[in-house]
């Protein structure tokens, strides 16, 4: 189990491995190539601990003696072999050579996140002194956010989500940090798509039926502030159960402040959040030898 995507940074020296992070494990695997430089990995997205990644990306530079460069396919093979031998849940799907000025984080044109929500069906009755965990499929443990709310209305949920789309100041939906309180929080949320989901379980569990209605909430935007998606989902759940009106979401955007946040809103856990895709302009993934010197950069997904 890895702590998070990013490794812990030390001011004195960033060239130190961190085996408890995705970034650190990638660097440890790249050290097997014995490049002249330390293979510092730059991630495209800084996700919190507990957030899943179905398809992410990163870049790094490798230097070696002479004019010969590292083979991209060989890099992905060696990295995957290292992860497999050490039982690490990371898979490199593709390795590409790109231009020297490519940056996996800042060249990204958009990102897609998915939040999986499961609501206990109205006709399923569980005594108050019985935990909801009794009916959660074991295959879905830490993979979805399960709630038991009798008054949940998905139509109100969708109505509130419409207000989130567009270019807004999302300060209200950001986890407050004194050190970053003056950083601008204006972002464009291109779309919020809500559709019926389904459990990710074995055929044996599926044959026993499901006690939950599953919903997939997909967010599409170029960038997001810290905890934005988890706080937006928590807000929409409050709308769905009647604690907030759909128009209250608009007010939270019109008055962007930590004081516009309602204390009764629950910040949703990271269990149900997935980074699905990081998108780039295809031209940025094309290596042009006329404009760059020889180097090696990885795009991992």
From TrEMBL:
Q: Where is the active site?
A: 48 (nucleophile)
User: Which species expresses this protein natively?
Assistant: Bombyx mori
InterPro entries this protein is in? PsdUridine_synth_cat_dom_sf, PsdUridine_synth_TruA, PsdUridine_synth_TruA_a/b_dom, PsdUridine_synth_TruA_C, TruA/RsuA/RluB/E/F_N
Residues that coordinate or bind substrate? 113
What's the name of the protein? tRNA pseudouridine synthase
Entry's family note? Belongs to the tRNA pseudouridine synthase TruA family.
Q: Which residues form the Pseudouridine synthase I TruA alpha/beta domain?
A: 161-281
Keywords recorded for this protein, A-Z: Isomerase, tRNA processing
The reaction(s) annotated as catalysed by this protein in its Swiss-Prot or TrEMBL entry are: uridine(38/39/40) in tRNA = pseudouridine(38/39/40) in tRNA
Top-rank lineage group of the source organism: Eukaryota
One term of GO molecular function? tRNA pseudouridine(38-40) synthase activity
């Amino acid at each position: 189990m890895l702590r998070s995507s990013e490794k812990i940074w030390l001011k004195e020296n960033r060239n130190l491995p961190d085996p408890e992070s995705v970034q650190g494990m990638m660097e440890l695997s790249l050290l097997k190539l014995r490049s002249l430089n330390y293979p510092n990995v730059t991630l495209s997205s800084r996700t919190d601990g507990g957030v899943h990644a179905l398809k992410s990306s990163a870049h790094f530079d490798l230097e070696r003696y002479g004019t010969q460069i590292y083979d991209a396919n060989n890099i992905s093979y060696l990295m995957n072999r290292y992860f497999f031998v050490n039982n690490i849940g990371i898979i490199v799907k593709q390795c590409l050579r790109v231009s020297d000025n490519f940056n996996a984080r800042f060249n990204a044109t958009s990102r897609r996140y998915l939040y999986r929500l499961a609501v206990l069906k109205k006709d399923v009755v569980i005594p108050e002194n019985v935990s909801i965990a009794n009916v959660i499929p074991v295959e879905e443990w830490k993979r979805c956010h399960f709630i038991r709310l009798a008054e949940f209305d998905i139509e109100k949920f969708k109505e509130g989500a419409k207000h989130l789309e567009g270019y807004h100041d999302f300060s209200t939906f950001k986890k407050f940090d004194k050190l970053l309180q003056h950083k601008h929080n204006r972002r464009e949320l291109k779309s919020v798509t809500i559709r019926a989901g389904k459990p990710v379980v074995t055929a044996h569990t599926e044959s026993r039926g499901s006690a939950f209605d599953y919903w997939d909430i997909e967010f599409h935007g170029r960038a997001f502030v810290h905890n934005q998606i988890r706080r937006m989902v928590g807000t929409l759940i409050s709308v769905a159960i009647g604690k907030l009106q759909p128009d209250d979401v608009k007010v939270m955007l019109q008055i962007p402040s930590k004081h516009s946040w309602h204390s009764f809103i629950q910040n949703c856990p990271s269990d149900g959040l997935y980074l699905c895709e990081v998108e780039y302009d295809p031209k940025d993934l094309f290596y042009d030898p006329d404009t760059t010197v020889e180097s090696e950069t990885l795009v991992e997904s």
